[in-house]
Amino acid sequence: LAYQDKDGNWFDNPPVAEDIRAVRINILARTSRKNPNWRLGIRPAIEDHAGAEGHDGYRRRLLTTVVKVRNMGL
Questions:
Q1: What is the Cα–Cα distance from 10 to 12, expressed in whole angstroms?
Q2: Predicted pLDDT of residue 38
Q3: What are the strands, taking DSSP E only, across 1-74?
Q4: How confident is the model over 11-27, as a mean pLDDT?
Q5: Which long-range contacts (CB under 8 A, 24 or more apart) does 30-37 make?
Q6: For residues 50 and 29, what is the distance between their CA atoms, to the nearest angstrom?
Q7: What is the pLDDT of residue 65?
Q8: What is residue 50's predicted lDDT score, i.e. its pLDDT?
Q9: What phi and psi values does residue 18 have, to the nearest 5 degrees?
Q10: Which of 13, 35, 50, 56 makes a 20 to 30 Å CA pair with 29?
């Protein structure tokens, strides 16, 4: 998760709850088994989590969405 404050800045740790305007949600899914023919298998960096170097043979799908927090900052 990442949090956007009232000034438009993104943070990995939530700022003051009253200043949150949006939340970015990331979900990374990975196949349970390696595919030896898959050459794109690199774990991507997400928010404050570093990615991995080199191919590991797993297929991955990253889903990201931003949810605006209603009624904040009124």
A1: 7
A2: 80
A3: 2-5, 10-11, 20-30, 60-68
A4: 90
A5: 30/58, 30/59, 30/60, 31/58, 31/59, 31/60, 34/58, 35/59
A6: 16
A7: 97
A8: 85
A9: -70, -20
A10: 13
Select the more confidently predicted residue: 70 or 27.
27
Query: Which residue, 60, 70, 65, is CA-closest to 1?
Result: 65
* pLDDT at position 40: 75
Whole-model pTM over 0.90:
no
- Alpha carbon distance 3, 59 (integer Å): 28
For residues 65 and 20, give the distance between their C-alpha atoms in angstroms, rounded to a whole number: 16
- Answer whether 5's CB lies under 8 Å from 15's CB: yes
Gap between the Cα atoms of 73 and 70, Å rounded: 9
The tokens describing 57, both together, are 């043979």
Q: Is the pLDDT confidence value at 15 over 80?
A: no
